[in-house]
Amino acid sequence: xxxxxxxxxxxxxxxxxxxxxxxxxxxxxxxxxxxxxxxxxxxxxxxxxxxxxxxxxxxxxxxxxxxxxxxxxxxxxxxxxxxxxxxxxxxxxxxxxxxxxxxxxxxxxxxxxxxxxxxxxxxxxxxxxxxxxxxxxxxxxxxxxxxxxxxxxxxxxxxxxxxxxxxxxxxxxxxxxxxxxxxxxxxxxxxxxxxxxxxxxxxxxxxxxxxxxxxxxxxxxxxxxxxxxxxxxxxxxxxxxxxxxxxxxxxxxxxxxxxxxxxxxxxxxxxxxxxxxxxxxx
Amino acid sequence: xxxxxxxxxxxxxxxxxxxxxxxxxxxxxxxxxxxxxxxxxxxxxxxxxxxxxxxxxxxxxxxxxxxxxxxxxxxxxxxxxxxxxxxxxxxxxxxxxxxxxxxxxxxxxxxxxxxxxxxxxxxxxxxxxxxxxxxxxxxxxxxxxxxxxxxxxxxxxxxxxxxxxxxxxxxxxxxxxxxxxxxxxxxxxxxxxxxxxxxxxxxxxxxxxxxxxxxxxxxxxxxxxxxxxxxxxxxxxxxxxxxxxxxxxxxxxxx
Lengths: 282, 255
Known about the structure:
The complex is a heterodimer. Chain A is mostly helical. Helices cover 76% and strands 0% of the residues of chain A. Chain A has one domain. Chain B is mainly alpha-helical.
């Protein structure tokens, strides 16, 4: 099914409807609930694991746990939810019913992406709230115990926690768009998920490929590293948890630059996904 | 099913073009975040790959994973398992290289405990008295120094790492000259501890460079606060007076 009518205008309203339905469908999934409970449980367990902490301060340890939950569970959720919601429509033939209506496939692709992304953003929002509460509660009790250490007020910068969450939402946006792209090609949702995980890991290591590209002498290796460093997004850029947990300030421009960086990649992957989905026979 | 494979080369070409276009942006973000670590050798590349992978797979959970591995290392340490302990020290510092405690304690275990495990508790005196014992001690001291050298990527200006290296050079390799050079670096690092200055003064004295030690301590004395117990201003003053007496000089300032 291609564009149903030449005169039909591309509509953001239809995208919004598809995104809204996708979001509702996603938050009703047991997987979403399970992941959210698991991530919040993992954050709560940071209080138990305090006994095994040797390397960092207590509040930083809790923040690390929360940031870990957001990135690890958030990325896993993004990959699984996007693949299931997009490929599920093709697999269960519900896409045929939907695309029989006057609707562009690119609207379907964008709507599915936005719905999946909104689901993960919702997860990140809940995790951020829980992390802020956990840090605030522990910091308050430490303040009562050691008032001398808090003469200048609270040391945790809660705005930075929200900033971290926003940056992870950008990273996960790119990941969702990659999974959407693979779902338009895939012949099973498992393939789209596996490719999503691979891109997640390789994207995380991309900066090493860039460094290696300069350091290695072998021309064949140089070519492979160059390909890896240019063809994939650098997810390491979004690893700002260390800086924020240590109380450092992120320059304001970083948020804008990361936003622009994500927008470029998301636009590219969604454009390719739309082109690929247009050529796909359902 | 799919008839869209023909667009793959085109997509790869566009992906490469986008990567090339955003590379200056990528560089500027990573520089602003202080993420750029130059890879000078394949060994560094190997270690960065391990750390990158641990960040990718474990994310923020790497600190707790590192702590767990460190705990399990204690079992190997109790059993005096050389290979297991060494491997786990390497693993912990690879999973989470940020806490300096893993590097410092790891180096201490390698330099102080492992030689004793090799020769046995009853023969620890051989580590200093026999040629063979000294060889063992030197071998493990060098391994400990190698571990601390690796920490430089993450703790480039950490005075505690320099001081630990100095102690190994001094007490395990009997190389006071190099030990003094490391302590000097510790005094020049960011937020150097007060004791690093006192140790450097003492090392210069032991090296016979008393005039240099006196000058160094006099300069340091002027920077010390009066009311800090860690600064030990009185002790530094006593040392300066003793050195002046030995060198029979009066000095410009009263201490």
